[in-house]
Here is the input.
Amino acid sequence: MKHHSPQHSIAIAKPPSSFFITVLGLQLLLIPLCIIAGPIILVPVIGVPLFLFVLYQQPFWGIPIFILLHFFLFQETEGISPWEVLFAAFNVVFFSIWFTRWFAEPRIQVFRQKISIYLFIFLFFSVFSIIPGILFQVSLLKWFRELIPLLTLLAILPIMDLVRSKRQIDLILGAFILLAAIVAFRNLLSYFAALESAEALWQLISARQTANEPLFMAVTAISFVFLLLDKKPLRRFIAGFLFVFFGLALLITFSRGYWLATLIAFFSAFLVLPVRKKVSIMLFFLFFALSSVLMLYLFFEDTLFSLFLAISDRFSSLDKLKVDISMLNRLIETKAVWQLIKQNPILGYGLGKTYVFLPLIEREMPTWYVHNAYVYFWFKTGLLGLLSLLLFYFAAIRHSLRCYFQQTEMYDQALALGIFSLLIAMAVVSITSPQFIQKDSLLIMALGIGIVEVLNQKKQSQIFGSES
Here is the structure.
């Protein structure tokens, strides 16, 4: 396979003449608006073409922008908000520019990589579900709205193609951490504001902030691995800070499923490490945990004690799952969907299909949502859709583990192991919380899988350029 040099891969591209003709035509069309609306209209008239030109020259910057714009996508709104329209428009522009650049000068055969082929097979069956959807009178709008989040996984392709240095990986991780930090700050402020008026233990739990738990789980899990493996003091300090901050943000969600998933991620990473490393890690984290609790106790004594009681109460409910209403409700939900699957196991019913069951917890009926992600895809896309999802996802897990063992640099090893442990945790928690259909979880998967593929390419062909 032919590989271009790093210098050639980042050369400034000259947009085709059709690009300039299109921009000029749009500007001519906007002249009447300038006359009517006044000079203010010049901002988008000049700004949009300039932004498109810069994005065409340096398409990599579309990836951090794509990540940060997810903040608006995470907001719960009735109907479609203007920000969602902006996000969709940016995606169309960014992916169109990237594909045009790639088609004109392909640096690697991204569409021939195994992970890409598995992804396309999965997305094919997801799109194909429109056929049974039409047969079972599914709303095309609902089908489309359930398909759109899955397309986030396509971000794997430009990441594989455009990322050529560790600095670019750092920028992607930085954008993701910034996104997670904004959400975490909002959740922490809301929770501690509610905490001031709380007088009973149940109020501490009912004030929990459940928005975007996967973001906090992801940063906590990966920072944990960097604490284990990274030898550079500065990076270890940053990892420790992120571990404490996002660990706290995860705790106040009071989400037992994500607590358990984070512990699974820790254990998965721990299991892979050599024995000598495991012993030193246990001693280190014993000291780290005790010192963290001591610091929190000194500065937040009353709040820490109340929070500890609430968390203990939430954890203690894990041994009562047989009578837990939420868990029983999910079992009833799964049984109802399973009855439908048995009637049509191969083709499924199509994305957007709703079903009816008698819930223990009052909710809107009928519903499209299934807590078990594997049952969800079997129900919606049929057995072939489910198998294609498993083929894609477990190939990603295998690639991340292989990446960890093949890397020689500590940073790359820590990143690969962190992503591996996170993918394992998300696979397990999908039994009760469907990671494969949640916007934040799909973003995490796309970034993690894309970065692992970049590291694998680096190892195989030394594609990385300079760190500048």
Observations:
- Residues 58-461 form one domain.
- The chain has 22 helices and no strands.
